[in-house]
Known about the structure:
Radius of gyration: 18 Å
Shape: globular
Low-confidence stretches: 1-17, 151-155, 320-337
Structural class: mainly beta
Helix content: under 10%
Order of helices and strands: EEEEEEEEEEEEEEEEEEEEEEEEEEEEEE
Distance between the termini: 37 Å
Amino acid sequence: MIKHSFLLTLSCLVVPQLEQKGDGPGARSSHAITLVGDTAYAFGGEFTPRVPVDNTMYALDLKTRTWSALTTTGDVPPPRVGVTMASVGATVLVFGGRDQDHKDLNELYSFDTLTNAWSLLPSGPPHRSYHSMVTDAEAGRVYVFGGCGDAGQRWAELPSLGEACRPRGGPGLAVAAGKVWVVYGFWGEELDDVHCYDPATGRWDAVEAGSDRPSPRSVFCVAGIGKHVVMFGGEVDPSDLGYLGAGKFSAEAFTLDTETGAFKRLDDASESEHHPGPRGWCAFAAGEIDRRRGLLVYGGNSPTNDRLGDIYFFPPILDASNQAFVSSNSIAVCAGR
Length: 337
């Protein structure tokens, strides 16, 4: 099992390898991670395909790189895979997933990082797993999109995307430049379309991303940083065994400029021995470490179908518009298709 942490820019390697310490979650995939201040919280996932590992909330101190398994109280969620998390202020929201009986869930939980207490909230959108969830901290909203599960399209008030955007699992979902971006995903085949939602107008638009777009993919890592949507890894060719196997994974990193609609492959030191390599089904979160905004990537599935337990932080060099992370204490929850 790999248990190391690395700090990497997308233009060059800047910090040597860092060892993780403490009682951590170890290798897994189909799990979730999110950041609150200088702490990353991880929950859920699998080591054996489709078998949830545990329901422990783990915390990683990003200053000391030390993990701890938290002792929690309240309405503790049952173990699950294909789950998502997002942070709003000091609160972590956990939604959906798939339980040990392979049943898709629609429970919405909150976890208070100040008291380590769980609370079960009113149910969210229809049951689903392998979906995406993201916080728009400045607007005080959390968005959920896509996934596998029961029929049903909306949690609250967002308009339909229409026929231009197919339902999908494993999509990328990010907030950038004040808009919500749906990027790629899987619906019978790997997809390469891009759509954006403008909360100011309540309108969805299909985005022409140009000829330099990445190949179709799903279950990749994604983050909104300034006006950019940053992507890493993902599955570009699914396994014939479905969830039980490992498909073909990418090790590439790309950025989408939301103003021009142009993709660009990033120089991510892919030939370095410290590069994370091809993977998908990772836990990931946008956040800030050492005053640099970036993408935190934890674990995932490898081309050999072995689960990974390493952590990387990507603070890409993009432009001067990159902004520090801002938290909000209010929540207006809504979801797309």
